[in-house]
Amino acid sequence: MFLILDWSPKPLVHRPLLSGTAIVAYLACAKFLVHMITAGNYGFYRDELYFLSAGERLDLGYVDFPPLVAVVTAVARGLFGDSPAALHFFPALASAAVVVLTGLMARELGGGRFAQVLAALAALVAPNILVFGTWMSMDAFDQLFWALATYVLLMILKQDQPRLWLAFGLVAGLGLLAKVTMLFFGFAVFVALLLTPARKHLLTKWPWLGGAVALVFLLPYVFWQIMHGWPTLEFWSNYGAKLDPDSAVEFLIEQIATMHPATLLIWPAGLYYYLLSKSGKPYQALGWIYVILFLVFAVQNAKFYFLAPAYPILFASGALVIERFIRWRQWNWLKPAYVSLMVISGTIVAPLAVVPVLPVDALAKITAPVEGNAGIESEDLERPRVPQPFAFRLGWEKMVKTIAGVYRDLTPAEQARSCILAGNFGEAGALDFFGPKYFLPRVISGHNNYYIWGTRGCSGQVIISVGVPLERLEAVFNDIEHADTVTCGEYCMPDENNLPVYVARDPKIPLEQAWPQFKHFS
């Protein structure tokens, strides 16, 4: 294909189907199709089961996320049904849109067809972006709104149209409904403007009006926080205490690995373009945004993927730098060579790290020597034999079947008084979703928003418990029986394997009174 295409920056009016924008669209469509074709291969991701429950209990906020992902989950379920493919439609679409926006940003910076395609390819193959198109998550929409906000900011700096700050505020506000890390992006934009000649915008009313528009979207979530005693602050405090501290160097290494080593020539070149090149000076603030966010997240010991939404704008400028370098040296052979490298390496890495294509047995044989995740961890949990994005999809219905066997062994009188108590939102979500198929009773949990949802009328007379520490049960119940053990196989998350299932009877105190003892926000 690369021998046929002319990679020169000449206008291709007579071949619109081979223009840079068209090829970027093809890449985005290919990405979307891959996500949809592979959507059902490994089943539901753990967080998706939680979001399904949240979608049945729509609210202004939740302990560990703003409301958008629950709304999108409910809409997807209503439109397309309960299959993984149905749930993956909107995140796959959002992730494909990030590819398009990356190519468009390269075009707005002055990039020709090669720059647009290279930038879009970088956004396509980067595992830290690709992965969030494979399941329903707030991060898929977080990345989309960051990319869209960055595109609007680029247009503000390029065209000097201050009224576009209102559009920026609208996009940022929608981003706040997806994930509150948009606040960090807004902070970085403000500081970057102060550090560059673009500070002139702060002397007008428009950025402030845009900021006000964004904050309006946040007000319902703030109201929910006030009404529930600011549970998200408690969540983040507990969550941060669990993470092992990383140095800035370790954080950088994680960025290199999870944004794909093949892109390492691109995004540093993009940072150079904004901060050091003459042609990039009008857009200097865009480079400072990345630097500020890197420092903030590194100091906060944030998860490595928090910074992922900041890369599309670097891919856009980096691809432009490489295109100009090739033109200057007249090394046109490098264009098909680099594109081929991106395509081939991306095709190799994707099924090993983020896209559920390979049979799990084959995947385990390949990834086991590097402990599944090759040392890159997104959760502070025991490492599985396969990468976490795959392990978190395995074993959930098998767990529910085990619980159903315990439930069937109860007497009819006990069944009528029983409830299921799960240790975390993944277990609770799986029991909520698959439970009706096995005629199971209501499910409760003290984990995150399940604690807010309460005991759901459960009397506490008979409790089937999974994933709850025995000592916590002993503090509330007099009679505790080890009824069975959940085994989810050798490839699921180790923390979900070999879990004892208890039947607890004869509560020492009413469950409503004991409920705070089961609370854990983490």
Structural class: alpha/beta
Strand content: 5-15%
Number of domains: 3
Which stretches are low in confidence, meaning pLDDT under 50 for 5 or more residues running? 1-13
By DSSP, the count of extended strands is: 5
The amount of helix comes to 55-70%
- Radius of gyration, CA atoms, in whole angstroms: 25 Å
Biggest sheet character: 5 strands, mixed
- The average pLDDT score comes to 93
Inertia-based shape: globular
Q: If strands are numbered along the chain, what order do they take across the biggest sheet?
A: 2-1-3-5-4
Individual helix count: 24
Amino-to-carboxy terminus distance: 49 Å
Secondary-structure blueprint:
Layout: H1 20-37, H2 46-55, H3 68-80, H4 84-108, H5 113-125, H6 127-130, H7 138-159, H8 164-178, H9 182-195, H10 206-227, H11 231-242, H12 248-258, H13 267-276, H14 284-299, H15 312-329, H16 334-353, H17 360-367, H18 388-391, H19 396-408, H20 412-417, E1 418-422, H21 425-434, E2 443-445, H22 449-453, E3 462-466, H23 470-474, E4 477-486, E5 499-507, H24 511-514
Parallel strand pairs: 1-2, 1-3
Antiparallel strand pairs: 3-5, 4-5
Helix pairs in contact: 1-4, 1-5, 2-3, 2-21, 3-4, 4-5, 4-7, 4-15, 5-15, 5-16, 7-8, 8-10, 9-14, 13-14, 13-15, 19-21
Brief descriptors of the model:
522 residues; alpha/beta; 3 domains; five-stranded mixed beta sheet; disordered N terminus
Structural write-up:
- With 522 residues, the protein is α/β, with parallel strands linked by helices.
- The chain folds into 3 domains: 17-335, no CATH class; 360-391, no CATH class; 396-518, no CATH class.
- Helix content is 57%, strand content 6%.
- It is built from 24 helices and 5 strands.
- It has helices at residues 20-37, 46-55, 68-80, 84-108, 113-125, 127-130, 138-159, 164-178, 182-195, 206-227, 231-242, 248-258, 267-276, 284-299, 312-329, 334-353, 360-367, 388-391, 396-408, 412-417, 425-434, 449-453, 470-474, 511-514; strands at 418-422, 443-445, 462-466, 477-486, 499-507.
- A 5-stranded mixed β-sheet has the order 2-1-3-5-4.
- Strand 1 (418-422), helix 21 and strand 2 form a beta-alpha-beta unit.
- Helix 8 runs parallel beside helix 10 (206-227) and helix 19 (396-408) crosses helix 21 (425-434).
- Mean pLDDT is 93; it is low at 1-13.
